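ARCHIVE CARD
CATEGORY: sequence design from structure
SOURCE FIELD: tokenized fold
FIELD CONTENT:
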């Protein structure tokens, strides 16, 4: 895990330098928080972590990291956007979204299921003359706390 985290930080540092940005302590702390949570997290969840970053610094850093493709927003079913590291950094996965509280958890499917899903999506895209580049699957329901 430590080697994986170091590799992620190295990739992020490289991407930021290519974009003319610096991998500041604040950005590194934010990436560490996202890695620690291991799922898409909201601003209130990030603020609960009690880092030295102010809310305005977090928003500014999130915007910079999102602009260069290091993180992306995941829409839940509540008023809070959630953020996670890009799949190129943490691997391809899908989301379970609670329709009541808005929580989002990641899940992965077997390689065979992923291939079948990709085949079905490519077929649907082809019939619409749509050029498919990737996919995201969001399953909506109720989390264990809300059932």
């Amino acid at each position: 895990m430590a080697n994986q985290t170091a590799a992620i930080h190295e990739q992020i540092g490289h991407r930021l330098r290519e974009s003319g940005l610096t991998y500041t302590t604040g950005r590194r702390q934010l990436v560490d928080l996202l890695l620690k949570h291991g799922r898409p997290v909201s601003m209130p969840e990030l603020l609960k972590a009690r880092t030295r970053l102010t809310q305005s610094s977090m928003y500014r850093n999130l915007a910079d990291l999102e602009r260069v493709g290091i993180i992306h927003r995941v829409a839940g079913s509540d008023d809070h956007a959630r953020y996670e590291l890009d799949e190129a950094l943490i691997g391809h996965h899908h989301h379970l979204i609670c329709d009541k509280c808005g929580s989002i958890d990641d899940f992965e499917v077997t390689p065979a299921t992923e291939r079948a899903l990709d085949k079905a999506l490519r077929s649907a895209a082809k019939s619409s003359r749509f050029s498919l580049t990737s996919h995201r699957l969001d399953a909506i329901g109720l989390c264990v706390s809300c059932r």
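CARD ANNOTATION: The chain has a mean pLDDT of 91. Strands lie at 41-42, 71-75, 81-85, 94-98, 104-107, 138-141.
SHELF: design records, drawer C
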